[in-house]
Amino acid sequence: MRIGPYQLGGHFTLAPMAGITDAPFRRLCRHFGAALTTSEMTTADIDLWQTAKSRRRLDLDLDAEPRVVQIAGSEPASLATAARLCVERGAQIIDINMGCPAKKVCRKAAGSALLRDPLLVEQILSSVVAAVDVPVTLKMRTGWDRERRNGVQIARIAEAAGVQALAIHGRTRACRYRGNAEYETIAQIKSAVGIPVLANGDIDSAEKSLEVLRLSSADGLMIGRAARGRPWIFRELNHYFASGEPAAPLANNDVRDIILGHLSDLYQFYGESTGVRVARKHLTWYCTGLKNADKFRSRVVRVKTASEQIRLTRTFFGAAAGDVYMAA
Ligand SMILES: Cc1cc2nc3c(=O)[nH]c(=O)nc-3n(C[C@H](O)[C@H](O)[C@H](O)COP(=O)(O)O)c2cc1C
User: What pLDDT sits at residue 323?
Assistant: First the structure.
């Protein structure tokens, strides 16, 4: 799959997830074979870029190429300005968020709320495409609600505006995260446009990934929640896609070392105090399904220093159930 000048090295990409897909997590997923990763969404309101949070979200220094920055907003001119500034800071692809149903985003008629207003979608996408000389991509849902599943219309508008790839979450905005994702609308979109399409929603195993590729005819897939606590899912998906066989499970010690490496990257990126706090949620996901996870979780979410967090992590994951990692 190709986006503008960038030939991706695989079919499986990491979905942007605010609060999760920070630079350390993106690095980890790329290490395990994610073909593309995207920053957490950044507001198009550049007056808010001075906060530590926004500054970190725009920190692209160590990102693998192509560096993708996602922006969210509702005014064509501010999105265009934000896109230009992101490119100046090193973004190689600009992704526009029209997939997020979060209230904070939708109240300002950004994110998936824009799907209700095709004219504004056209204005936004045309403005951003005209503002930058890098590829612009769009992350969207299948429509506003089940009655107005206008994904095909939006996708055609996007292609005509010069958008170079689409990622589609197989739910409407009204569905939020309820029910199961459906891939039929994604297949309709794929056959209505000539640009690459990534299918997204509820893909959590190698078998499911092949099923979604078949049902949607998409060029690639985007994996979100299933990568939490399991960044090596990209290795599993790539292996299954290439060989039709499940990848060998990771050994306990490998998992322990991957997690310790992740912690170290978090401390370096955020500093110790914030790094320890951010690491708690990742550790909670890493231990899901393991023996004595509750006990480990309740202890590790309380610790305040890196050394204590490392000590508990080393002990727990070094001794986790069996010889191989059986979680998830
Ligand atoms: C915690 C969380 C944060 C998210 N943040 C974003 C975001 O910043 N931008 C975006 O386009 N989608 C965001 N999403 C949506 C995901 O990219 C993805 O479309 C959705 O989770 C469905 O995929 P999945 O079933 O593989 O998780 C977020 C999802 C979650 C769970």
Answer: 44
